[in-house]
Amino acid sequence: MTTFKTLVKTTLTPIALCLTLAIAAPTLAKKGHHQKHDGMRQILSELSLTDTQKQDIKQILKQNREDRDVFSADGKSLQTDLRSLVQSSEWDQEAVESAITLRQTLMQEKALQRATSKHQVWNLLTETQQAEFVAQLEAHKTKRDAKDSDRKGKGKRKGKMLKRLNLTDAQLASVEAIKTAEKKSSEAIKTKLQNYKQAEQSLIQGPEFSAETWHALNTEYQSDFVDMALLKTKSKHDIWNVMTPEQQTKMLEKLEKFKNKKKGKKHREQESV
After folding, report:
1. Fewer beta carbons below 10 Å: N end or C end of the chain?
2. Which residues fall within 8 angstroms of residue 115, CB to CB, at 6 or more apart?
3. What angle do CA 12, 245, 97 make, to 5 degrees?
């Protein structure tokens, strides 16, 4: 029989993660698509770069940030639309799919800019530095995965969140069922998106990179991006509606603090390179 303690350990992080993504910034795939520079800044800081390389890389990343700002207003508008749909009492499949498709179109251009800047940075490195970069990237991934696994095992965040939300056994069981169904439905899509990420990385680090080749690769996986977003958004909507109005208010307050903390961290990272 599933105990209350077991439910705490398997459920609260999914709640925090799902609602953070849904309310703060809905995305199309978890840490796979259109997200961070995969630890690029931190890894670059560990390489023995010349002053000229550092300056050139800093300029590339600065330009990438400025280019992203062009999409800021439209992105915030779509984010607001998705947030409203997630927090509604009724599920509107057509409206959600429309919002996700519009967001995907916008994010595709941002992702191309990010991939282009990564390719430019890659070509500023010597072959030795490139080899070291790849090794460091793999080491960072292994370390990050280990931390994620340890965090899940300890369940510290889950307990804190539960204490603040006061979820009942029935609510926890409902959330667990929602997350289990989402995980089962998304397994095949996740495999495809992992293939996309590997193919994109090979393209970025290869001699044939261009906007055309990147778009061809990205377009091949568009339906997978949308399908994954639909699954995640539906899960977030269902979890949101498991909570009472009081719990929803508490969650929004917690997420606002999390968002502000994340903004501060991002700002510090941008200034470090």
Report:
1. N
2. 200, 203, 204, 209, 214
3. 75
What amino acid occupies position 241? Answer: N
Please give the structure tokens belonging to residue 178: 């929602």
What amino acid is encoded at 234 in this protein?
K
pLDDT of residue 1: 42
- Are the beta carbons of 225 and 207 closer than 8 angstroms? no
User: Helices 156-165 and 127-154 sit at what angle, rounded to 10 degrees?
Assistant: 50
d(CA 221, CA 189): 10
Residue with the two structure tokens 């069981």: 173
* Contact between residue 65 and residue 37 where contact means Cβ atoms under 8 Å apart: no
Structure tokens at 131: 């080899």
Distance CA 177, CA 200 (A): 34
- Residue 33 backbone dihedrals phi, psi, to 5 degrees: -125, 135
CB-CB contact of 211 with 112 (8 Å): yes
Rg (CA), the chain: 20
Place of tokens 């390179």: 273
Q: Divide the 273 residues of the chain into consecutive groups of 10 and give the mean pLDDT of each group.
A: 41 42 36 49 87 92 74 72 92 93 88 93 93 88 72 51 78 93 95 95 93 95 94 95 93 83 66 54
Alpha carbons within 13 angstroms on the beta-carbon side of residue 197 total: 17
Show the tokens assigned to 273: 């390179």
Say if residues 28 and 239 touch (Cβ distance below 8 Å): no
